[in-house]
């Protein structure tokens, strides 16, 4: 990755000017980055500082432009294309100069990471928030040399082929983003993982702090209002406070600088109520495809791209709590429908679908009356939506619906009376849901869609076009 950075005319040290917030973790890193971005946008709107904030996250839901944002807004398609081909041309020119093969380019995620550095340099951002792709130690984003602060969100078992099978191995990789002289904040982890993080911090010369569940969030509304989201918010307020405490606040009056620094100090001291702009930033944060609720005439959608055992437990609890509350407080007897897919061959399919089924049944006494398993193909006739093409999956396996029949088999193994449906596209899955609603006897319909961000992106594409 360092070679590619140099090929487009930069050195990794050039990116230090961004005042980078670098976030790794298994669950919640994208949401934590969104919280930081939203709080900083409140200070931008109120005090005109930071002047320009860059945000780099993955994956995207509807458009690849979502991955690179300036002041919370995705790049326009025109700007995205402009910067994409600037990087492309620089790479080819560098290959010609050294007598290399111009057809060799960084792979997809590396290319977009490289492009994000170029965009933020050209757009002159003064804070940049980077979400790690996979792991940390060997991630493309880890060419960053001197972040202003790093954060570690909740750890769990994921990407075992790359990161290892144990929480300790995974913690080692995530801690790879720690840098000498920089602060690292982490939410509370299992003790064995915390030991690894502390040891890695010592090895790398990073100042490590495990943060508590912030009491100042008690009266702040975050969506969803669950413990896991409060953990993400707790980490975000510490990361943001660290930025504001150390950032040179150009263009502000001395009075405003003192007020901003005081807000940051209040957070870091753990002794004061949450500053108003921090609270507003958390409340205003919108993270598409993560605990998102959308109402349609035929039913209420509950959307989340969870794709690990731990995250699927969290999503099942979120859905289960809402269903149970509706039943207990409002007497609602909802028709519950599951829409699920996770196509990756590297994930334990039986473990994932069984997690959803058992969590809903055992903890919440919910047995979805209908379960639908589809591919990530968006449309019945036109195939994938433009930015949602899945080139990592085996075309023959997708076409034969092998994975979807496997999910249906696992589901019926534990619930032989279950009604399951296997369909070839997301469009057909939604049509099936509409048909089920027509045969419904007036009960409200609650649809839980989960398993992958590709699935959720396709669902949103169709729902927003209805």
Automatic annotation (TrEMBL):
GO terms for biological process: one-carbon metabolic process. It catalyses: (6S)-5,6,7,8-tetrahydrofolyl-(gamma-L-Glu)(n) + L-glutamate + ATP = (6S)-5,6,7,8-tetrahydrofolyl-(gamma-L-Glu)(n+1) + ADP + phosphate + H(+). A monovalent cation. Keywords: ATP-binding, Cytoplasm, Ligase, Magnesium, Membrane, Metal-binding, Mitochondrion, Mitochondrion inner membrane, Nucleotide-binding, One-carbon metabolism. Pathway: Cofactor biosynthesis; tetrahydrofolylpolyglutamate biosynthesis. It is found in: Cytoplasm; Mitochondrion inner membrane; Mitochondrion matrix. GO terms for molecular function: ATP binding; metal ion binding; tetrahydrofolylpolyglutamate synthase activity. ATP binds at residues 290, 304. It is an enzyme of class 6 (ligase). GO terms for cellular component: cytosol; mitochondrial inner membrane; mitochondrial matrix. Its EC number is 6.3.2.17. Its main location: cytoplasm. Its cofactor is a monovalent cation. SUPFAM superfamilies: MurD-like peptide ligases, catalytic domain, MurD-like peptide ligases, peptide-binding domain. The keyword Mitochondrion applies. Mg(2+) binds at residues 58, 131, 159. Belongs to the folylpolyglutamate synthase family. Catalyzes conversion of folates to polyglutamate derivatives allowing concentration of folate compounds in the cell and the intracellular retention of these cofactors, which are important substrates for most of the folate-dependent enzymes that are involved in one-carbon transfer reactions involved in purine, pyrimidine and amino acid synthesis. This is Folylpolyglutamate synthase.
